[in-house]
């Protein structure tokens, strides 16, 4: 999930639609609401955020520090005008990258993945055991062969692999796949997606790589 902050609701809804076409969930905030949210949100929810996109808003330079106090997800600022001074101020404030509109969401995703690679938090092509997953909308591969999955199942597999070594509960997976504030979908749908994913992986690998423990959540073991 990507969090978008902008003072214009039209902009946040626009990003939501653009990212949705790439299979990525977003949650939009007005600046005042975001400041309160990032300071008080539960750890499970903020750990589900894959990146923050900061659009035009007052006090934008204060947000990177607030984000860093809670998580290490990439922070990208989006400028609508070209200004070297403004760009340097944003980098000094702690953003990981500054981009100028217009920009295709695939380039934003590529920049997010590049930042994660630099910090060792991910890769556009991450190979774990027989499975390679991508963060740019492509299907995963099993033993070098494309392994077609529905969008939600693909995103769950990517999220489990990105957080390998950690056990993720249903709420964390739901937030990552559907967004923190999606009240139209029940969390129980995660169990259905994971059940289907496990069956397909078992058929392809000959074993079930997803371990589940009641009350603790899910983890993936491919080593």
From TrEMBL:
Residue ranges of the annotated DNA-binding region, renumbered to this chain: 123-222
UniProt keyword list: DNA-binding, Transcription, Transcription regulation
GO cellular component assignments: cytosol; protein-DNA complex
Molecular function in Gene Ontology: phosphorelay response regulator activity; transcription cis-regulatory region binding
Listed Gene3D superfamilies: 6.10.250.690, Winged helix-like DNA-binding domain superfamily/Winged helix DNA-binding domain
Lineage: superkingdom: Bacteria
Record-annotated Response regulatory domain positions: 1-116
GO biological process: regulation of DNA-templated transcription
All copies of domain OmpR/PhoB-type, residue ranges: 123-222
Identification of the protein by name: Response regulator transcription factor
């Amino acid at each position: 999930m990507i969090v978008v902050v902008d003072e214009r609701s039209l902009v946040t809804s626009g990003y939501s639609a653009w990212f949705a076409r790439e299979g990525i969930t977003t949650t939009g905030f007005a600046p005042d609401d975001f400041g309160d949210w990032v300071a008080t949100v539960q750890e499970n929810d903020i750990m589900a955020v894959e990146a923050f996109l900061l659009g035009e808003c007052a006090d934008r330079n204060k947000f990177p520090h607030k984000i860093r106090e809670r998580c290490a997800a990439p922070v990208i600022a989006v400028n609508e005008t070209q200004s070297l001074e403004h760009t340097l101020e944003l980098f000094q404030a702690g953003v990981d990258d500054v981009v100028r509109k217009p920009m295709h969401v695939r380039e934003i995703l590529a920049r997010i993945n590049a930042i994660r690679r630099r910090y060792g938090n991910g890769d556009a092509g991450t190979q774990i055991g027989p499975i390679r997953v991508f963060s740019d909308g492509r299907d995963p591969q099993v033993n070098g062969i494309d392994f077609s999955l529905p969008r939600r199942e693909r995103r769950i597999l990517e999220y489990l692999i990105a957080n390998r070594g950690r056990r993720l509960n249903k709420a964390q997976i739901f937030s990552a796949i559907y967004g923190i504030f999606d009240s139209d979908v029940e969390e129980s749908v995660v169990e259905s997606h994971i059940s289907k994913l496990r069956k397909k992986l078992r058929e392809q690998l000959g074993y079930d790589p997803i371990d589940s423990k009641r009350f603790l959540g899910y983890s993936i073991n491919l080593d």
